[in-house]
């Protein structure tokens, strides 16, 4: 019988959820958010957009298919993960499967969490916890083992999370003749894979790097965590790029930063969109897509200038899911067209971008 240690999740309203540890035993704090996807925990945990957050997985059984190997391709991109490491501060689930079975699994989720020093809790009523988060919005929380004061609450949105997860140096992935500058705000590796398989050379630069001194055919602004208001350096560099007519494509944080560069505003959503099943409609059409999403902020449609218009809208709550310029080759999506771990309904947006180059 395994020796399982008791652990508590404490929310900033004083609510306490008690469970059992299956990860690394250390106190941690962050913003508590939930994801309603049924599968894809290896991809979610390694998504840099979760930096600073404690992730609640609403699907009741987690861990039953283990974790794929840590391997990298010739471009030094992770074969099965979305980055080089786990980015969540902690994981909260209902029922942990101590036994796993999958053709590609090399170890358990618990072993992986312990290896990367990430706490995990099971035995929590995640339905009740998710209801509380839906009623109150995303909340600050902390995971403690010995006493309630082991660690203080932290608001990750007060810290520049993009600076934490962005690359530190320029990385070039040589492919075709067309060159894309990718501003790394916390890019998922599958975004880079999607661009490379379309035979484009990708020049990946840090979030605050002035890429306008480089020679390129198109600009890509990646996803990333936290508050877009803390990325003014990126916004200013995008504004410089807008003095030319080169194609621009942004995803997730890239949507928000492109909007801010155009003069629009963003705001924090009550509890964000984190799932594989968010329906969005392309404006001006009856085309609706099921999308993968992970964001806590949104663009305010009412602040878009006359030169810009919404491109997609969320069918659940009417929030912005993308913008486009009415005359220039500039557009963005709030959702994830690369969609690891799915669905892939909107990957055609990469084709549209590459065809503009």
Automatic annotation (TrEMBL):
Record region (CPSase): 1-178
The reaction(s) this protein catalyses: hydrogencarbonate + L-glutamine + 2 ATP + H2O = carbamoyl phosphate + L-glutamate + 2 ADP + phosphate + 2 H(+); L-glutamine + H2O = L-glutamate + NH4(+)
Pfam family, one: GATase
Keywords: Amino-acid biosynthesis, Arginine biosynthesis, ATP-binding, Glutamine amidotransferase, Ligase, Nucleotide-binding, Pyrimidine biosynthesis
Binding locations of L-glutamine: 49, 224, 226, 253, 256, 294, 296-297
GO function terms (MF aspect): ATP binding; carbamoyl-phosphate synthase (glutamine-hydrolyzing) activity
Protein's GO biological process: 'de novo' pyrimidine nucleobase biosynthetic process; 'de novo' UMP biosynthetic process; glutamine metabolic process; L-arginine biosynthetic process
Domain Carbamoyl-phosphate synthase small subunit N-terminal: 5-144
UniProt pathway annotation: Pyrimidine metabolism; UMP biosynthesis via de novo pathway; (S)-dihydroorotate from bicarbonate: step 1/3; Amino-acid biosynthesis; L-arginine biosynthesis; carbamoyl phosphate from bicarbonate: step 1/1
Subunit structure of this chain's protein: Composed of two chains; the small (or glutamine) chain promotes the hydrolysis of glutamine to ammonia, which is used by the large (or ammonia) chain to synthesize carbamoyl phosphate. Tetramer of heterodimers (alpha,beta)4.
HAMAP family: CPSase_S_chain
Function description: Small subunit of the glutamine-dependent carbamoyl phosphate synthetase (CPSase). CPSase catalyzes the formation of carbamoyl phosphate from the ammonia moiety of glutamine, carbonate, and phosphate donated by ATP, constituting the first step of 2 biosynthetic pathways, one leading to arginine and/or urea and the other to pyrimidine nucleotides. The small subunit (glutamine amidotransferase) binds and cleaves glutamine to supply the large subunit with the substrate ammonia.
Family statement drawn from the similarity comment of this UniProt entry: Belongs to the CarA family.
Protein name stated in the entry: Carbamoyl phosphate synthase small chain
